[in-house]
């Protein structure tokens, strides 16, 4: 496919997303209907689609509308490219620009220039303070791909060498002690022996840094209460494999990959639908707005609304109340979000402490995309007394 045909395809996929399809779904549907497209074409189309979604409001301003065609036109203008070189109508290129399209479109202003949902702008600004603009700007760009080296199987240097032998270039990343930033060959990672043999696991560097900051007990049991695919338990188990790990999720199917991932990593994680007894550490990596990870899931940025945010905050508070009694005396509760919003982070931690006088906050950590990985929040609470 020519570069212009890829842009036309991206516009088509964006139109499908606008009808309510998830981006991944729309991309696979397009791929199935256009089998002639090779893997490089599909990757390029995907990049265009995600670039436009990340910068949807500024692209809409530059392009004069929210259709796929307008968004792609806006993306070209935002990047300082000449749309007439793409909108030629030749072959599978998009049709030439109409006089209306030429006249429409302007530089974005205010929250749109930062691709910040207007309704959330004040709340994000209050949460991020002076970081507001730089963080929002960081969220307009693609995220890096990160790996966590499994310290049980390799050093960072050994993992880099093993990956390089299979065409994946990676370098140590300072945010977390076992983090690697992939600089080339990211699409090959899951086909490498280094991955299959558990030397490395895909995990954002911010997520790794959060897992490193969770204090682990000397012995006993750890419950990952909102385990999903098990990313947090896998990282904790690599730090202290002698502890016993239990993974739980309200939607147990989300944990389907845990056995294979744990086997590759050489650790043991037991899935449970009904955790029993008390745990020395409970990790609650709660469902959240995902605002810290909007670079990877840009649709979420535009789907969130006030009702959704309030519902998430209520769920987070309810999960904290549900897990607190499962923590053993003197044990710890680690509350984690990948949110940038105080309503889901500091305010949630303060609410928990106000409702539960037998608890203290031991530490907290806030990361934003300015630190290099996704944005995260961690609050570690300790349970006082012997009851
Ligand atoms: C942020 S994701 C977890 C990501 C995962 N810990 C990881 O590191 O890969 C949140 C998870 O919480 C689960 N969840 C939602 N509500 C829940 C609840 N009330 N109790 C337990 N899990 C819940 C969701 O199904 C989802 O898998």
TrEMBL record:
It holds the Pfam family RsmF-B_ferredox. Belongs to the class I-like SAM-binding methyltransferase superfamily. RsmB/NOP family. S-adenosyl-L-methionine binds at residues 249, 285. InterPro entries: MeTrfase_RsmB-F_NOP2_cat (IPR049560), MeTrfase_RsmB-F_NOP2_dom (IPR001678), RCMT (IPR023267), RsmB-like_ferredoxin (IPR054728), SAM-dependent_MTases_sf (IPR029063). This is 16S rRNA (Cytosine967-C5)-methyltransferase. Keywords: Methyltransferase, RNA-binding, S-adenosyl-L-methionine, Transferase. The active site is at 338 (nucleophile). SUPFAM superfamilies: S-adenosyl-L-methionine-dependent methyltransferases. Residues 83-110 are annotated as: Disordered. It comes from the Bacteria. GO terms for molecular function: RNA binding; RNA methyltransferase activity.
């Amino acid at each position: 496919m020519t570069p212009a045909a890829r842009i036309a395809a991206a516009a088509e996929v964006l139109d499908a997303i606008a009808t309510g399809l998830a981006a991944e779904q729309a991309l696979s549907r397009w791929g199935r209907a256009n089998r002639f497209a090779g893997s490089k074409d599909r990757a390029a189309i995907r990049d265009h689609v995600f670039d436009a979604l990340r910068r949807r409001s500024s692209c809409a301003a530059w392009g004069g509308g929210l259709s796929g065609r307008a968004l792609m036109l806006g993306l070209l203008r935002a990047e300082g490219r000449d749309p007439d070189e793409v909108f030629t109508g030749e072959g599978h290129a998009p049709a030439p620009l109409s006089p209306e399209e030429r006249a429409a479109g302007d530089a974005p202003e205010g929250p749109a220039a930062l691709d910040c949902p207007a309704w959330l702008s004040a709340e994000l600004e209050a949460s991020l303070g002076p970081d507001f603009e730089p963080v929002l700007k960081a969220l307009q760009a693609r995220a890096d791909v990160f790996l966590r080296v499994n310290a049980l199987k390799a050093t960072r240097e050994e993992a880099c060498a093993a990956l390089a032998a299979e065409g994946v270039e990676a370098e140590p990343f300072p945010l977390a002690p076992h983090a690697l930033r992939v600089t080339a060959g990211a699409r090959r990672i899951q086909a490498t022996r280094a991955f299959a043999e558990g030397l490395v696991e895909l995990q954002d560097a911010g997520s790794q840094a959060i897992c490193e900051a969770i204090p682990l007990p000397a012995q006993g049991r750890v419950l990952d209460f909102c385990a999903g695919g098990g990313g947090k338990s896998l990282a904790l188990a690599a730090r202290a494999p002698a502890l016993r790990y239990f993974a739980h999720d309200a939607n147990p199917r989300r944990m389907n990959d845990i056995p294979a991932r744990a086997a590759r990593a050489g650790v043991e994680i037991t899935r449970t639908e009904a955790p029993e007894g008390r745990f020395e550490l409970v990790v609650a990596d709660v469902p959240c707005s995902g605002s810290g990870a909007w670079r990877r899931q840009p649709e979420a940025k535009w789907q969130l609304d006030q009702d959704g945010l309030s519902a998430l905050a209520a769920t987070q508070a309810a999960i904290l109340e549900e897990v607190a009694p499962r923590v053993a005396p003197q044990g710890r509760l680690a509350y984690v979000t990948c949110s940038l919003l105080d309503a889901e982070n500091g305010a949630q931690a303060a609410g928990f402490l106000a409702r539960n006088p037998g608890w203290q906050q031991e530490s907290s950590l806030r990361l934003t995309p300015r630190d290099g990985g996704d944005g995260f929040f961690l609050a570690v609470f300790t349970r006082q007394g012997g009851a």
